[in-house]
Amino acid sequence: MRIEDIDPNFKFETIKEEDIEWISSLDERFSLYGVYYDEEEKSFVRMPQDVAQSASVNVGNLVKRSSGGRLRFVTDSPYIAIRSVNTNVGIGAYSTMISYYGYSIYSEDGYMAMISTTFDTLKNGGENIAYEGIKHFGNTKRQYTIYFPPYGQVRALYIGIKKGSMLKAAKPYKNETAPVVFYGSSITMGGCTTRPGCDYTAMCCRDLKLHYLNFGLSGNCKAELVLADYFATLPMSVFVYDYDHNARDAEFLRQTHERFYLRLRELRPDLPIVMVTRPTHTHQWRQRREVILANYERARERGDENVYFIDGSTFFPDSLRPYTTVDEVHPNDLGFYLMAKKMKSMLRRILSQKA
Fold this sequence. Notes:
With about 350 residues, this protein is an alpha+beta fold. It folds into two domains: about 15-170, Sandwich (Jelly Rolls); about 180-355, SGNH hydrolase (Rossmann fold), CATH 3.40.50.1110. Helices cover about 30% and strands about 25% of the residues. The longest helix has 22 residues, at about 335-355.
């Protein structure tokens, strides 16, 4: 017997409304961030395929995952419904269904609800998973942000509102034309969050009302120079260089970390760059920390006043460390919250200096 047959609190709310209007997420009244629709791939992506494939085949596959994707809008509809088509990509061993297939709904007041599919739909689905869901919020006009699944591949998304409801674009982010860009591993990508919007990139930028792009590349952040060249073309206010975990060892990190930084600095001489080390005490973490710290110190000695350093080993207080990860590597929601606190402080400091 399924748990939802025993406990109705686990049931998803089904759509019974007859006054619903379905609107494509590509409608101009919606503001789409962090991803864009690729007509050739027939899905939402984070980076052009020619750039991604020039780094590696795996990067080409990963940029089809929608980490950092957000849809923002204002409506007075009493409910928000979602109709989604996602590629059936399975579920990671340490992850939740919603982090692969679902959506989180936030208003300016904070978290509102999540909508996802079921295991039965996943099990019985084919190449793609299609589902619908709905949440009721009352007749209050609100600005909503819907976070895409960080590890999902979204092929189509429609938003349902009550017919006749007001719908308009959200107000711009403070840094609308110059987002914060995050580049890193599965931790940056949001691996092992319980739901979209709970990774550290989303948490800190939501609190600061900042636009951001998430280029977390699970297992495949290798500091390829072709990506430094690509990132240098992007308008951005800060570059968060969270490269540590996916270097196979400290020596590989030594060979690649500074090289990538120097290429990006050459192309973007005034860009604030934040170097970050890993938050967990695993796999040569001290040696890796020393490599990145030395690169930061050399940069400062050369006169680079736009480079910053976050010691990842200080993200988690010792008293809380046993409760901050899923598998001693990937942070859980508490771990991401603690990372976001320090990252938020750093971003606030940098952006206040630029103001």
